[in-house]
What we know:
The complex is a heterodimer. By secondary structure, chain A is mostly helical.
Amino acid sequence: xxxxxxxxxxxxxxxxxxxxxxxxxxxxxxxxxxxxxxxxxxxxxxxxxxxxxxxxxxxxxxxxxxxxxxxxxxxxxxxxxxxxxxxxxxxxxxxxxxxxxxxxxxxxxxxxxxxxxxxxxxxxxxxxxxxxxxxxxxxxxxxxxxxxxxxxxxxxxxxxxxxxxxxxxxxxxxxxxxxxxxxxxxxxxxxxxxxxxxxxxxxxxxxxxxxxxxxxxxxxxxxxxxxxxxxxxxxxxxxxxxxxxxxxxxxxxxxx
Amino acid sequence: xxxxxxxxxxxxxxxxxxxxxxxxxxxxxxxxxxxxxxxxxxxxxxxxxxxxxxxxxxxxxxxxxxxxxxxxxxxxxxxxxxxxxxxxxxxxxxxxxxxxxxxxxxxxxxxxxxxxxxxxxxxxxxxxxxxxxxxxxxxxxxxxxxxxxxxxxxxxxxxxxxxxxxxxxxxxxxxxxxxxxxxxxxxxxxxxxxxxxxxxxxxxxxxxxxxxxxxxxxxxxxxxxxxxxxxxxxxxxxxxxxxxxxxxxxxxxxxxxxxxxxxxxxxxxxxxxxxxxxxxxxxxxxxxxxxxxxxxxxxxxxxxxxxxxxxxxxxx
Lengths: 256, 316
């Protein structure tokens, strides 16, 4: 893993020197803040009604009514934002020719792919930390149990990392950042909506399709359920696309 | 130090270089000369482990560029032709990255950066963003990153291309000063640059090495005269002497095995082929063949020399 930290630090520097990251972070936080607010406001409204209805009050739960929709909403915002974070990673280096430096420094391809991925995931994690004040606020008001919160964040984090690994792959395919972003957005959306066809294609294929799709895996996390199937799904997804990126780098070298 | 054997690289079905073989010893400064598109960059990219060759092998210090890629890369400082730099970084920071990437220990990094900044004369701009620098300074930053970690071999692809005359001279001086400590391979399409800096020149054309010699030898060998071979049928004893009397012909020798075959040495400044042909026909002899010898090399050379003169003119 020679050169990992060098590339990692340079990549973080590049990330923070470009306005794209700030615009993405700003938009992400504003929209997620809005979602959090609306979930809270709705919860608030219902809890007034529940005050007069003890039966309804029994079914009340913060994690079910605020956190679960909040995490699901976050994932939709992520779908739009992740491609913008990853699009420059390889495409820009190909365009400006700096990939030639990276390829001729004593850094293995594996280290540079992994370093770039880790850098973008770190950035994403930092943006995600920006949503925590809402949770602190929630904690102050209602003292919800922290396990489902952690679990939800873990789900969002893994989902985001999966998005980013796909994004890094599409970025390695082209030297045009827009093409990279559109490709990764399209593919992500496909993974998102493919689950909708599960009832149309027969039970066995439907099962497979549902497993491939993002939606179901995220929902278990959002509900506060930690299932090894979902963990493995995300990990395999990430490793698979990082591997493809590595292969793509090798192929790029051969073609010259 | 650098050994290339039978290097061949195909882009799709097009061969960029074919069977390129050469050797560079330690401490040599070798110029890689050829017109644009001759395969200089391709060869260099193989040596620097940017890409593997389709066939053949390249070795640096006895290590194969493909199999021991990381170790080879440790020994090479490379300045790519387009001088790619991370333009959002400051000079200092970029060089520190290069040092870290090349495995310079953390506590020595600052010193190493200071060293290359000093060599390349970058003190004044070391805190500035690379994207804001002039082309000349960018070129020096490119050279500085190649020098980081003091690699024994420097490979510079067209280090002076696109610079103004003053900057060209500065960069040449820089390279001249590096000669003592490094083995240098320098590519160029301009002869005087190579003649000033290098002990040995390899001329490459259409993907093949056509000549290797010292710049002085090459010049004297090629600039003196041009050879034209003619073959005739029928005998005319005074043909040789008549040819000799033609204006611009320096010498005529006939082939020992075949008396009908003659080598005509002509003045390089003029193309005498039409006059030779006319003379032969006027003598009543059949002209079977008339061709210039080794034209490819001469052509390239002429091209390089002409580019040299235009370049020199713009410098003065």
